[in-house]
Amino acid sequence: MAAKSRPKSDAPDASDRVSRIREGVTAAILEHRLLPGTKLGEDEIGEIYGASRTLVRTALQQLAHEGIVNIEKNRGAFVARPTPADAREVFEARRLIEPTIVDHAVDAVSPAWIGRLQRHLAEEREAEQRGDARASVRLSGDFHRLVAEMSGHSIYLGFLKELIARSSLIILLYRRHDTPACGTDHHAGIVAAIRKCDREAARAQMLSHLNEIEAELFLKDPAADELRLADVLGA
Amino acid sequence: MAAKSRPKSDAPDASDRVSRIREGVTAAILEHRLLPGTKLGEDEIGEIYGASRTLVRTALQQLAHEGIVNIEKNRGAFVARPTPADAREVFEARRLIEPTIVDHAVDAVSPAWIGRLQRHLAEEREAEQRGDARASVRLSGDFHRLVAEMSGHSIYLGFLKELIARSSLIILLYRRHDTPACGTDHHAGIVAAIRKCDREAARAQMLSHLNEIEAELFLKDPAADELRLADVLGA
DNA sequence: CAGGCGCGGATTGTATAAAGTTTCGCCTGT
DNA sequence: ACAGGCGAAACTTTATACAATCCGCGCCTG
Lengths: 235, 235
Known about the structure:
The structure is a homodimer. Chain A is mainly α. The first copy, chain A, has helices spanning 17-30, 42-49, 53-66, 84-107, 111-130, 133-151, 154-174, 184-195, 199-215, 222-234, and strands at residues 39-40, 69-72, 76-79. In chain A, strands 1-3-2 form a three-stranded antiparallel β-sheet.
């Protein structure tokens, strides 16, 4: 009875069908199975999940609000294709928010949470050794989400969910090499700092972790892209 | 032709009907004409705007995602009633984000922007002297949004829109006195600092501004409320 | 007379059908 | 042979009809 009697806005487990659709599509995007620009037809998705277009539509609208799907009027829904400018904004926002999140996570430190984090690290390591790139990508995003959940700050959590989803698309589009998704070592270091309640170390490690991810990106100028196209066509 | 050729996800001017509904309801909430807990019936709104329930539904879902409307399954949509915990989270997030936003605004300083800001300040002052509380509340929120637009950071802008809308509800619920919505003097000081390109002053003033707003709130413990009820019923 | 049960009204959730728009292919005219 | 326009198909958008759910009121029973 001491359980939080707060159903709040959206049930996270998602017993309803629209959430199942949303999470299915989200997972597909996060695991890089759906590529940017892919058309997400209503009929198509509806048939997959055995749902009517009405439900698919609501799910797609939610995803559009989260920034991982673009809905073009009278054209349909497409997996978003973040521009380099978007990418810079996303990572700047993450550099601002995530250090604060780990700070809160330190306040919430407990054996249970440390256990969850370490279990997650084990999962990540296993996926990487298995060479499962898709699981690896998803899990490295989940790590950041887990820390945000630990912080207990629901607004930061909501913001970060958005940022992580977009980051996944950005990494897919602009990663230079096929280096591992997110250095697991970094994650382990962050967990260690959290466990030791060392705020400054935790913040610093999170920050450098994000910097390293961004450093691996090659954010070509979007204008350059269009110009190049114009050149090619003009020549 | 040099205009931004970026229709992007949502057109801000909103020529379509669902945006008109969304913005109408949003304005009503921001101006404190719709009180927290108010039932937002689909038929009711649909008749007001001459739209079908389908469109009203999408608008309400968007507002739910922004956190100013709660949709309870099989019950309907209600104006959100943020808890004190929510309030603390919202203001903490604003204290984190807004100083960064003004920092970016300094980078974007130009006569045109300074003009817009000062015109806005004049509007605010006029509404306050006129004693128009509703316009005052709306305009003081718009000031923060304007600075975010100036920063050119679309992600921060999106986050801040959410935070401002929720702040409006929080202020309505938990304000102690009927002091003016947002000290216009603070806003003027922030604009002055931006104009002088004094980053540190701008950040500091924004921060103290937010602190003062939060200091005017009386965030009673929600648990205490429930417990008090239990006591009364138990006695 | 009090308490519980069941039914009716109202409202939301879902599906389906009609309407409008865009896109692509084809056909005709030069 | 190629450019331009017409037309059909597919899709999204919007509206409406149907089904499920919940709340409140009245009635019946103990």
